Amino acid sequence: MKIYTRTGDDGSTSLFSGERVAKNALRVEAYGTVDELNSQLGLARASAPQALVEEYLVRLQNQLFTAGADLATTADSTRSRIVRIQDKDVAWLEQEIDRMTEPLPPLRSFVLPGGTIPAAHIHVARTICRRAERQAIELSRREAVGAILVYLNRLSDFLFTLARYENFLAGVSEEKWIVAQS
After folding, report:
1. Which of 33, 69, 77, 134 is the most buried (most CB within 10 A)?
2. pTM of the model
3. What is the total count of domains within the chain?
4. In terms of residue numbers, what domain contains 119?
Protein backbone atom coordinates (compact mmCIF):
# COMPACT_ATOMS: atom_id res chain seq x y z
CA MET A 1 0.00 0.00 0.00
CA LYS A 2 1.33 3.42 -0.91
CA ILE A 3 1.48 6.10 1.76
CA TYR A 4 0.44 8.85 -0.62
CA THR A 5 -2.99 9.07 -2.22
CA ARG A 6 -2.85 12.46 -3.94
CA THR A 7 -6.41 13.14 -2.74
CA GLY A 8 -5.14 15.95 -0.51
CA ASP A 9 -3.20 17.73 -3.22
CA ASP A 10 -6.05 20.26 -3.53
CA GLY A 11 -5.70 21.23 0.16
CA SER A 12 -8.53 19.04 1.44
CA THR A 13 -8.66 15.98 3.67
CA SER A 14 -11.28 13.42 4.68
CA LEU A 15 -12.84 13.21 8.10
CA PHE A 16 -13.69 9.75 9.45
CA SER A 17 -17.28 10.46 8.45
CA GLY A 18 -16.11 10.63 4.84
CA GLU A 19 -16.77 14.35 4.52
CA ARG A 20 -14.01 16.34 2.80
CA VAL A 21 -12.86 19.54 4.47
CA ALA A 22 -10.01 22.01 4.07
CA LYS A 23 -6.77 20.92 5.73
CA ASN A 24 -6.82 24.14 7.73
CA ALA A 25 -10.39 23.67 8.99
CA LEU A 26 -10.76 24.19 12.73
CA ARG A 27 -11.63 20.53 13.29
CA VAL A 28 -8.45 19.47 11.45
CA GLU A 29 -6.39 21.99 13.43
CA ALA A 30 -7.78 20.53 16.68
CA TYR A 31 -7.08 16.89 15.88
CA GLY A 32 -3.75 17.84 14.33
CA THR A 33 -2.75 19.46 17.61
CA VAL A 34 -3.83 16.33 19.48
CA ASP A 35 -1.56 14.39 17.10
CA GLU A 36 1.29 16.82 17.90
CA LEU A 37 0.61 16.27 21.61
CA ASN A 38 0.77 12.51 21.09
CA SER A 39 4.13 12.87 19.32
CA GLN A 40 5.44 15.01 22.19
CA LEU A 41 4.46 12.26 24.62
CA GLY A 42 6.39 9.84 22.40
CA LEU A 43 9.41 12.10 22.80
CA ALA A 44 8.89 12.06 26.57
CA ARG A 45 8.80 8.24 26.45
CA ALA A 46 11.98 8.14 24.36
CA SER A 47 13.77 10.20 27.02
CA ALA A 48 13.66 7.32 29.55
CA PRO A 49 11.14 8.41 32.19
CA GLN A 50 10.59 6.56 35.44
CA ALA A 51 8.82 3.19 34.88
CA LEU A 52 5.46 4.28 36.32
CA VAL A 53 5.54 7.49 34.27
CA GLU A 54 6.25 5.39 31.18
CA GLU A 55 3.10 3.33 31.90
CA TYR A 56 1.03 6.50 32.17
CA LEU A 57 2.48 7.84 28.92
CA VAL A 58 1.63 4.65 27.00
CA ARG A 59 -1.97 4.81 28.21
CA LEU A 60 -2.21 8.51 27.35
CA GLN A 61 -0.89 7.93 23.84
CA ASN A 62 -3.60 5.35 23.26
CA GLN A 63 -6.25 7.69 24.67
CA LEU A 64 -5.00 10.46 22.41
CA PHE A 65 -5.56 8.31 19.33
CA THR A 66 -9.16 7.99 20.54
CA ALA A 67 -9.33 11.75 21.11
CA GLY A 68 -7.99 12.41 17.62
CA ALA A 69 -10.51 10.01 16.07
CA ASP A 70 -13.26 11.65 18.11
CA LEU A 71 -12.29 15.09 16.83
CA ALA A 72 -11.94 13.76 13.26
CA THR A 73 -15.57 12.64 13.33
CA THR A 74 -18.52 15.01 13.33
CA ALA A 75 -21.02 14.55 16.15
CA ASP A 76 -23.79 13.62 13.72
CA SER A 77 -21.74 10.91 12.01
CA THR A 78 -23.47 7.55 11.78
CA ARG A 79 -20.22 5.59 11.63
CA SER A 80 -20.55 3.13 14.46
CA ARG A 81 -16.94 2.00 14.76
CA ILE A 82 -15.65 5.35 15.97
CA VAL A 83 -14.68 5.24 19.63
CA ARG A 84 -15.21 8.51 21.46
CA ILE A 85 -13.73 10.05 24.59
CA GLN A 86 -16.10 9.35 27.46
CA ASP A 87 -16.71 10.49 31.01
CA LYS A 88 -14.86 7.38 32.26
CA ASP A 89 -11.69 8.67 30.58
CA VAL A 90 -12.01 11.92 32.51
CA ALA A 91 -12.70 10.00 35.74
CA TRP A 92 -9.49 7.96 35.24
CA LEU A 93 -7.46 11.16 34.80
CA GLU A 94 -8.92 12.61 38.01
CA GLN A 95 -8.29 9.40 39.96
CA GLU A 96 -4.67 9.27 38.84
CA ILE A 97 -4.08 12.98 39.47
CA ASP A 98 -5.19 12.37 43.06
CA ARG A 99 -2.97 9.28 43.32
CA MET A 100 0.13 11.08 42.01
CA THR A 101 -0.51 14.20 44.10
CA GLU A 102 -0.59 12.31 47.40
CA PRO A 103 3.19 11.90 47.86
CA LEU A 104 4.11 15.25 46.25
CA PRO A 105 5.05 18.28 48.32
CA PRO A 106 2.16 20.74 48.42
CA LEU A 107 2.30 23.59 45.93
CA ARG A 108 2.89 26.90 47.67
CA SER A 109 4.10 28.79 44.59
CA PHE A 110 4.33 28.37 40.85
CA VAL A 111 7.05 26.02 39.66
CA LEU A 112 9.19 26.49 36.59
CA PRO A 113 8.73 23.86 33.88
CA GLY A 114 11.75 21.59 33.83
CA GLY A 115 13.57 19.13 36.03
CA THR A 116 14.40 15.83 34.36
CA ILE A 117 14.39 15.63 30.57
CA PRO A 118 11.19 13.51 30.60
CA ALA A 119 9.50 16.02 32.93
CA ALA A 120 10.50 18.90 30.66
CA HIS A 121 9.02 17.06 27.67
CA ILE A 122 5.82 16.44 29.64
CA HIS A 123 5.61 20.16 30.46
CA VAL A 124 5.85 20.93 26.73
CA ALA A 125 3.08 18.36 26.16
CA ARG A 126 0.96 20.21 28.73
CA THR A 127 1.23 23.45 26.75
CA ILE A 128 0.36 21.66 23.51
CA CYS A 129 -2.64 20.16 25.30
CA ARG A 130 -3.81 23.64 26.31
CA ARG A 131 -3.58 24.74 22.66
CA ALA A 132 -5.62 21.71 21.58
CA GLU A 133 -8.16 22.62 24.25
CA ARG A 134 -8.42 26.21 22.97
CA GLN A 135 -8.97 24.92 19.44
CA ALA A 136 -11.59 22.42 20.62
CA ILE A 137 -13.37 25.21 22.53
CA GLU A 138 -13.50 27.29 19.36
CA LEU A 139 -14.81 24.26 17.44
CA SER A 140 -17.46 23.68 20.13
CA ARG A 141 -18.82 27.18 19.50
CA ARG A 142 -19.74 25.96 15.99
CA GLU A 143 -20.32 22.20 16.36
CA ALA A 144 -20.96 19.64 19.09
CA VAL A 145 -17.77 18.00 20.35
CA GLY A 146 -18.89 15.78 23.23
CA ALA A 147 -16.70 15.08 26.26
CA ILE A 148 -13.47 16.14 24.54
CA LEU A 149 -13.46 19.61 26.16
CA VAL A 150 -13.55 18.27 29.70
CA TYR A 151 -11.03 15.57 28.76
CA LEU A 152 -8.48 18.04 27.36
CA ASN A 153 -8.91 20.36 30.34
CA ARG A 154 -8.32 17.53 32.78
CA LEU A 155 -5.50 16.10 30.67
CA SER A 156 -3.49 19.31 30.98
CA ASP A 157 -3.89 19.09 34.77
CA PHE A 158 -2.80 15.45 34.57
CA LEU A 159 0.28 16.34 32.53
CA PHE A 160 1.28 19.06 35.00
CA THR A 161 0.96 16.57 37.83
CA LEU A 162 2.77 13.88 35.84
CA ALA A 163 5.74 16.18 35.23
CA ARG A 164 5.91 16.90 38.96
CA TYR A 165 5.60 13.18 39.70
CA GLU A 166 8.42 12.32 37.29
CA ASN A 167 10.68 14.81 39.08
CA PHE A 168 9.62 13.45 42.46
CA LEU A 169 10.32 9.83 41.50
CA ALA A 170 13.70 10.85 40.06
CA GLY A 171 14.61 12.78 43.23
CA VAL A 172 14.79 16.13 41.41
CA SER A 173 13.55 19.20 43.28
CA GLU A 174 11.17 21.58 41.58
CA GLU A 175 12.40 25.06 40.93
CA LYS A 176 10.05 27.70 42.28
CA TRP A 177 9.11 30.83 40.41
CA ILE A 178 10.90 33.84 41.87
CA VAL A 179 9.31 37.18 41.12
CA ALA A 180 11.97 39.41 39.61
CA GLN A 181 12.68 42.52 41.65
CA SER A 182 13.18 45.75 39.72
Report:
1. 33
2. 0.93
3. 1
4. 30-74+83-170
